[in-house]
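request received
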Amino acid sequence: MPGQSRVRHDLTAAAVELFLRKGYDETTVDEIAEAAGVARRTFFRHFRTKEDVVFPDHDDCLKRVEQSLADADPTQPPLAAVAVATHLVLAMYTDDPDASVQRYELTRHVTALRDRELIATSQYQRVFTSYLNRRSGGQPHTRLPDEVAAAAVVAAHNHVLRQWLRDGGKDDVHAELDRALAAVDASLGPWLAGRPSSEPTTDDQVVVVIMRRGTPMWRVVQEVETAAAG
Amino acid sequence: MPGQSRVRHDLTAAAVELFLRKGYDETTVDEIAEAAGVARRTFFRHFRTKEDVVFPDHDDCLKRVEQSLADADPTQPPLAAVAVATHLVLAMYTDDPDASVQRYELTRHVTALRDRELIATSQYQRVFTSYLNRRSGGQPHTRLPDEVAAAAVVAAHNHVLRQWLRDGGKDDVHAELDRALAAVDASLGPWLAGRPSSEPTTDDQVVVVIMRRGTPMWRVVQEVETAAAG
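response:
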C-alpha cells in the first residue's frame, strides 16, 4: 500500500469495521484508536477528523496526480497524460480491494462521507482542467472544452470505479478504465484539439458528396477533401 | 423571483451583505434576522442553517428540473430535454444578477459554501444521468455515455455561469449556455445516440451529404455517420 503507513492502514480498517457494525455516528475516535491498538493522539497524528479516517489518502494522491501531470511528455496528447493520472487515482482503490469495497458500502449509507468523496473528486477535476488549460495555451475559447473534458474523464473514472466496487472489487478495472477513456477520447478528443468549431465559415460555397451507404469513413474524408479542394 | 418569498429574499440579501462586510464566521443568525427586520424564528422558518441562507433555493429548483424532465417530449433528443432543464438552473442565478454576483464573491472565499454549491451541483448531475438512463432504456452499455454526458452538461453550465458571474452578471448568459450545450451535443450526441462506431454498414443505399465548403472534417464525419445511421 504505497504512501500509507501501517498504523494508518490499521486505523482505517478498524474504523470501517466499527462504522459498519455500530454505525458511523455511534462510533467515537477513542473506540477506533482502541480497536487499532494505538493512543487517541496517534489517531490525530494521522487524521484530522473521524471522516478522514475512512478515506483513501486523497491529499497524497492529489500530489502524485499533480506530479504525474507536471512530468508528462508535452508531445503526447493532453488526454493521454490525464489518463495516466486517472489510473493513479484508481490504483488507490485497487491497491486494497477489500477495504475499498467496505468503504464504498459505508459511503452509500452516510451522507457526510458521500459529500466528502464528492469534494475530493472535484479536486482531481480541477487539477485536470488546469493541466488541459496549460496544454491548450490558456486560450479563452479552449476553456470550455478543457473543462468539459476534465468532467468527462472524472465521470468515466467514477463510473468504472463504482461498477467495480458494486461487483465486489473483482476483475481488471484498469483495463475497463482504459476502454472508457478511449470512448471519451473518441468523442471529445477532436473538440479538445481545437478541430471542432461548429461555427459556419464565412465562405458559403456548397460541397455535395454522394456515396454509397457503407463507404468506409477514410474514403468519405478523402472524397470530401478532394471536392472541397476542387 | 419565482418560488422565493419576499422575506426569504430580504434575509438572503442581508446575510450576503453581512458576510461580505463582517466575514462569514463572524456573522450570527440573529444579526441576519435583525438586519432583515424579522425575528430569529422567522429565519429558521425559511432556512435550516446559516449556509442555506446564501444559496439559491436548490431544493425547489431540483423539483422544477425533475418536473421538466418528467414532462419532456419523449420524441425530442434526450440532450435537448436536459438543455431545457439546465436553463431552469441558470435562471435561478439570472433572475437576480446582483445577488448572484455577491453570492459568488462569497463562495470564492468560504470553503464551506463552495463545498455546498458543489454538492448541490452533483444533485442536478445525478438527476440528468438518471433521465438519460431512462431515455436510453437502462441498457448497461449506455450508462457510461449517459453519465459522461450529464457531467459534460453540468460542466458546460458551470463554465458559462462562472464566466458570467466573473464578468459581473452582464450579457445574455442563456444564449451563451445554448452555444456551449450545442458544442457538447456535437461532441457527445452521437455517442449518446449509440452511433459512435464508424463501422461501415452492409446496406448499399446512397447517402447524399451537402455541406458548406470549409466545414471542419470532424463535422463532416459526424454528418455522414448520422446520415448513414438514419
